[in-house]
Specification:
alpha/beta; seven-stranded mixed sheet; five-stranded parallel sheet; 15 helices; 19 strands
């Protein structure tokens, strides 16, 4: 800019926006003439209009539209198991606004002017939560079942099946799940979770663990020629530094939880205890847990034998998965430290006949452990290991039935898959009970689960976040 022009601009800037606008009109040429006062008045008017428009539109884009108020819906429940009360509440009215519950009134009147869903002949419950699933796995009774999926199915194809399986879970009444690794499908669970959250496909809200971890050579695929580079079902992790790096990497790519395999090779010895071979050194396992906790996440450990369970407890894990070989001392420690146990009974019973060996005995052993843990008030959260069995063959809600068969009351079993599972996920303020302020996640069945727990395997109504995904009770 030339010196003279710079001086004029500076002078005009000091005189304010009207003067600047007036000066900007001068290039229109000689035909455009007006007195200075008229020019300034016109410029002032333009500036005032611009300022008024700017203030009116501040904070919103030109395409913003006024949002409609959240829709209100009322549900009349013949019986309500709210997750807190010791018995069912008769004739309750649940009022929902948008995706949240705003009120629950026993024997209340349905508000006027709102849509009403009549479930007066049904039992309404909180949406179920399964805290151990594998949406991109579809059964692995045998090694061949597992190998075929990793060798012959692409990760995109497995992700598509994962979306299908998530829909199956939702249809069965599971409005929230924790998915504990992709079994070789990298970070596809994050993609399924994201697609559901964005409303692209229907499914439960998810927390995911991505790839899981073992040391090199301690998880399938195994037994192939060293000349072949075959996929593995986990991320191989070695050494303390490698453990910390793997944790950081998985969290970077979307892991809500970190999972590792504490043991393998389950066997009985002369003491009658189910033993196992521990995978990680104590230093490696502790590094996994410490780094995960440092980054604000939690750790789930696959541990079936007593040795693997003991190692996981030494490392400081947050949840024990499977736990068939729990000893009395380990049960006491889990109870004392408030660690959650996720038994996954359904998968053990499903795979045992096909796997043979010690598996049938392991199922029986877990029943004994379950009964002891129940007496000692261990926090037992419902998890099925769906994906370890074919999603299309077994209803996840079968797990509730096992818990009752093993000694829980129907109410205790329901709480394991609602309020206790919500606590494990850190979502106690969002799900697990039917009360004001919680997400509107509801399921309903025709019968009475407190009299016949198998009713939960026949869910007829599913609502997630105020949206009805299934209603066979109309």
């Amino acid at each position: 800019m030339r010196q003279g022009s710079a001086k004029r601009s500076a002078t005009l800037s000091e005189r304010g926006t009207p003067a600047l606008l007036c000066y900007s009109l001068r290039p229109l040429g000689a035909k455009f003439t007006m007195k200075r006062n008229l020019c300034v008045a016109l410029a002032a008017s333009i500036a005032a209009g611009f300022l008024s428009t700017s203030l009116a539109t501040a904070g919103r884009s030109p395409t913003d539209k006024k949002e409609a108020p959240p829709k209100r819906v009322a549900i009349r429940a013949g019986r309500l198991i709210d997750g807190k009360s010791d018995s069912a509440i008769q004739n309750a009215v649940i009022v929902i606004e948008g995706d949240k519950i705003v009120s629950v009134t026993p024997g209340g009147a349905t508000p006027t002017g709102v849509d009403t869903i009549d479930l007066s002949h049904a039992t309404v419950m909180p949406g179920f939560t399964d805290v151990h699933t594998h949406v991109v796995l579809n059964g692995d009774i045998t090694a061949e079942d597992y190998d075929v999926q990793l060798l012959k199915q692409s990760i995109p194809y497995r992700a598509i099946l994962g979306a299908r399986n998530a829909k199956i879970a939702l249809d069965h009444g599971f409005t929230s799940i924790r998915d504990l690794e992709t079994e070789g499908a990298m970070y596809a669970d994050v993609d399924v979770k994201t697609a559901i959250a964005n409303g692209e496909v229907p499914g439960p809200r998810m927390q995911v663990a991505t790839r899981a971890m073992t040391p090199t050579g301690m998880y399938p695929l195994l037994g192939y020629s060293w000349e072949l580079k075959v996929p593995t079902g986990v991320e191989y992790v070695d050494g303390v530094d490698g453990a910390r790096k793997a944790v950081r990497e998985q969290i970077m790519y979307g892991a809500d939880w970190i999972k590792y395999y504490s043991d393998r090779k389950y066997h009985f010895e002369a003491d009658g205890v189910l033993h196992s071979m521990v995978n990680f050194t104590d230093e490696e396992a502790k590094a996994i847990v410490d780094e995960t906790h440092r980054l604000g996440k939690k750790v789930a450990a696959h541990c079936i034998g007593s040795d693997g369970i003991a190692a996981a407890l030494r490392a400081g894990v947050d949840t024990v998965e499977h736990g068939d070989g729990l000893t009395d001392a380990e049960i006491d420690e889990i109870a004392r430290r408030g660690i959650y146990w996720v038994p996954t009974i359904t998968v053990g019973a499903y795979v045992a006949p096909g796997r043979g060996g010690n598996w049938t005995k392991m199922v029986d052993l877990e029943k004994t452990a379950f009964q002891k843990a129940l007496k000692k008030n261990v926090k037992i959260a419902l998890g099925t290991d769906a994906g370890g069995f074919d999603w299309k063959e077994v209803n996840q809600a079968k797990e509730f039935e096992y818990y009752v068969d093993y000694g829980m009351t129907p109410m205790q079993a329901l709480r394991s898959g609602t309020i206790v599972a919500a606590e494990l996920l850190g979502w106690s303020d969002k799900v697990g009970t039917v009360e004001a302020g919680k997400w509107a996640d509801l399921v309903a069945v025709s019968g009475e689960p407190l009299k016949d727990i198998t009713e939960v395997e026949r869910v007829k109504f599913v609502m997630k976040a105020g949206v009805v995904y299934k209603n066979e009770l109309r």
